[in-house]
Amino acid sequence: MRLEESTKPAAGAPSRGPIQVTEGSEVLLRLYGLGLGPGTSERVAFAELRPATASSNASVANGTCPERSQDLLVQPGLAEARDTSALLRVRVQPLRKDEQAKTYVLCTQRQPGQPWVPHQGADGQIVVLEEKKSLLPLWLQVILIAGLLVLSGMFSGLNLGLMALDPMELRIVQNCGTEKEKRYARKIEPIRRKGNYLLCSLLLGNVLVNTTLTILLDDLIGSGIGAVVASTIGIVIFGEIVPQALCSRHGLAVGANTIVVTKFFMLVTFPLSYPISKLLDCILGQEIGTVYNREKLVEMLKVTEPYNDLVREELNMIQGALELRTKTVEDVMTPLQNCFMINSDAILDFNTMSEIMESGYTRIPVFEEERSNIMDILYVKDLAFVDPDDCTPLKTITKFYNHPVHVVFHDTKLDAMLEEFKKGERGGGVVVVFFPSEEEFLPSGAGVAPDNRTRKRVGTQKNKRDFSAFKDPVNELKVKVSPQLLLAAHRFLSTEVTLFTPNFISEKILLRLLKYSDVIQELKFDDENKKSPRHFLYCKNKAADYFILILQGKVEVEAGKECMKFEAGAFSYYGVMAISPPPVSGKHPP
Prior knowledge:
InterPro entries: ACDP, CBS_dom_sf, CNNM, Ig_CNNM1/2/4_N, Ion_transp-like_CBS. Keywords: CBS domain, Cell membrane, Ion transport, Membrane, Repeat, Transmembrane, Transmembrane helix, Transport. It is a multi-pass membrane protein. The chain crosses the membrane at residues 138-162, 196-217, 223-242, 254-274. The structure is a single chain. With 590 residues, this protein is α+β, with helices and mostly antiparallel strands. The protein has 4 domains: 2-129, Immunoglobulin-like (Sandwich); 138-284, no CATH class; 329-458, CBS-domain (Roll); 483-579, no CATH class. The protein is built from 18 helices and 20 strands. The chain has helices at 54-61, 138-164, 167-176, 179-192, 195-221, 224-257, 259-268, 270-284, 294-303, 312-322, 329-332, 350-359, 394-401, 414-423, 427-434, 483-496, 507-514, 576-579; strands at residues 2-6, 19-22, 26-32, 44-49, 72-81, 85-92, 101-108, 117-118, 125-129, 342-343, 347-348, 363-368, 370-379, 392-393, 449-450, 457-458, 548-549, 555-559, 564-568, 573-574. Helix 3 packs antiparallel against helix 4. The protein starts with a strand and ends in an 11-residue tail after the last helix.
């Protein structure tokens, strides 16, 4: 006998052993033998084999069939009949209550009225199994499985997203985040303070959901291995990878928008999760959050520099402010050999004062004999009433003002020095003597300070003038006028006389022109010979091809037909038309 088909899926025909069918099904059996014909269905029946009853088993062994059972009803007629085989339809009745399986044996009758003979061997037996019923309807199972996958992903994502939000970070976001971030942080912060309670609720919910999902898949698929594989793939992809990837980047928004669901599950799991959380609080202590010290703050700013909106200068200043209490004066001050200093024996002539102005510093150390022997501090503002022509000794100025020199030990902390600067009594002297780096701290009072790390000067004057060209030349004949007067003449011509402005001649060329020996002339008036021809700079009705600028003294000018006379002093000029280009198209020169 062989099973051909069944109306219910749980039927099967093992290679060795009885045929297995499901209760309430209709099966098609193929019988093999001789003398099969249209009346075969009436001479075939099934009898129950009861393991607990010895009489039925003994009758089978003796070749007699037990009482025929009505649980397997042979349908009249054959579906197919051949010489040696036939297809027989059999209806399997439902098992009785509390019965999980029954075994039946095939009994046949050669002719009507003859005894029923059981078929010997396992291939003549049929085992009726209890039909496996689903816990829920199929459509409801599909909906529940989809919902459980969503909940599994939500618990997994919230576990990562909410627990990754530090309580300190939430407080910071509430104060300095965007309006949306502030609103999200205010929603999350109350439950995030109860970190262990939140963690236990999310983990319990996640475990409960994953376990229920596996049970439903096992009931739906009907195979333990298939249920394990399906639940593993579903939980890993939709319950772990996707939600955690999303919540790791948008944990604040996801946590705020699902806050109601989170509170609901915290309430549902309260009887179990709350006691566990209290136990964790007692063992591990209260969660404080991430706290950064100075070193960690500085390193965090450095690591996040490519992603924040801080410029390099701001980062350096923040770093310097955080290191005030750890660094000493020796760490940040400029070495003495790199400082701009001046000898106490110096004379304040034009060259010395030009060098001081070019340095760009407002306070300059004054040393005596050796650079390490600093005696005074020179303030540039002290030179306001000093005339370079007087060649005043520097000691005269320093003794008159007598600015104190503030000396500190090399191991003095920067925060202590900053407090000294705040007092406003000695800060300027220290700043100029040692030139503290602008990146370490920002004391007030220094006009220009160098950067100790890059050795670059930080200038405050955009249009800084270069006075080196007006210094007395070395190894050359000195100009007949003082450098101050030469500077004044140069600035006057380049600004007041159109033909000498930078649009027509560069300032360097103009300076070289003024330094020619024939350009600047000194004329002395002879009182005994007042009508001498050399006393007249210009004569009436006499052509002239030169320009004259009066630097010192006075001249008498007689002009017009009326011969009007008047006197002119320094920085009056004449002969502009002599050096102007000829007029074009009747236009007069400027």
